[in-house]
Write a structure and sequence with these properties.
Layout: H1 4-29, E1 34-41, E2 46-53, E3 57-64, E4 69-76, H2 77-80, H3 84-116, H4 126-153, H5 156-164, E5 170-178, H6 180-213
Antiparallel strand pairs: 1-2, 1-5, 2-3, 3-4
């Protein structure tokens, strides 16, 4: 059976890992990655399209400067995209997040195993926890980078606005504000770092204790007994 100290440390790490898993589920499930305001020039007026969307779906509404407003409607991201590069990058982000979800799940399993037992295999110990948490954090970081790249390089919001209202003409400008679904990924990275730090503190303390116990006898107080 593991010591109380080990159980407490790995239990805390398990909490951060399972929190990371839940947060990734929230990121995939919610559609508040970004809110965009896209301005177009019409024949006799300017038109503004406001979009809020995620990886799968979103909402869009249209405003005309003369005071007209088209009711908000829901759209599917994949259906509105005609740019194959933008669609491919959205798919890549989804795949990367699924991989991070699996990594987080494995990390949770490893920390739970170490909290209740002393696994014989080295990889099932701290090394495994380091590996899966690191992979999860890397996947999330890649997703955080790819999404803004898709917005800027592939004009994702403009593509979606044109998919919502096909009669739009010349694009003037766009402004973007990233939503909570996007920024939660930063919290996930922090949780993964916290899991690694917790396990490192435990492993380092255990190593120090082991080295202390293995000190050579000559470093101990010497009592010379003469016979």
């Amino acid at each position: 059976m593991p010591s109380r100290k080990k159980t407490a440390m790995f239990a805390f790490a398990f909490f951060t890992c399972i929190s990371s898993f839940v947060m990734i589920c929230v990121v995939l499930a919610t559609q508040h990655w970004i809110s965009s305001k896209v301005d177009f020039a019409g024949t006799n007026s300017s038109i503004t399209v406001r979009l809020t969307y995620g990886l799968f779906s979103g909402t869009c509404e249209q405003f005309v400067d003369v005071g007209l407003q088209v009711p908000e409607k829901t759209f599917q991201v994949a259906d509105n995209l005609r740019n194959s590069k933008a669609k491919s990058m959205i798919t890549a982000i989804i795949v990367i997040l699924v991989l991070s979800l699996l990594s987080s799940l494995l990390s949770s399993g490893f920390t739970c195993t170490n909290a209740v037992s002393n696994p014989y295999q080295t990889f099932l110990g701290p090394i495994g926890v380091y590996t899966w948490n690191s992979l999860c954090g890397i996947f999330i970081l890649i997703a955080m980078i790819l999404f803004p790249v898709n917005i800027q390089e592939n004009s994702l919001s403009i593509e979606l606005a044109l998919g919502c209202f096909s009669f739009l003409q010349t694009h003037i400008k766009s402004t973007h504000a990233y939503g909570y679904s996007y920024w939660i990924m930063l919290l996930i990275i922090i949780l993964n770092m916290a899991s690694i730090i917790i396990i490192y503190i435990y492993a380092h303390a255990r190593y120090s204790e082991k080295k202390e116990q293995e000190r050579p006898m000559e470093n101990a107080p010497k009592d010379v007994i003469l016979f």
